[in-house]
Design goal:
alpha+beta
Amino acid sequence: MRRNWLTPALVLGLAAVAGAWLTTQLTDGPEHGGSAELDTDTLPRTVEPFELTFADGEPFTAESLEGGWHLVFFGYTHCPDVCPTTLQTLQRTMSELEERDAALPTVVFVSVDPERDDRAQLEEYAGFFRKDFRAATGQREAIDDLTDQFGAVYHINRDEGEDYTVDHSAAIAAVGPEGRIRALLNPPHRPTEMADRLEGLMAEEGS
């Protein structure tokens, strides 16, 4: 079920599809988010208190994002393209940073589909890409609060039935050790470029 079917050629193809998709979807009004969409003028931005739960049962709160660098990405485990493509890119980015003997940020995958993504499934999904990747979810109200804070957008296509898809934005938020959103890494994501950007961010004074 979790075979590594993402070959380099397929990753590039999915990235192209995802890029085209991101330019056209979510224009008829997201189910949630969008009004607080972030841009460079709003950063850095402090993450306000919230309460979700990591896949291992530990609380995921604003305090969890303090003390080290974190990369936060919103999606869902049934995602056919953007999520697996992005998580594999993050996997390759972490490998690139390891080769440079650079510090590694903690990747947190936040599911916006708690009805289907239970803790066991989330832990398996995140761990498939890399064992130290973390996953979290929670009550809908808490998820919506966090997506608003991060400027993330999603829309659940409930008219598709039980096998519904979820349209969602694909930016990765870099959160500094002081618990502030320091940058948004927008697609297309490329491992070497992301590693360069992260090294630069982590080297900034006060990091």
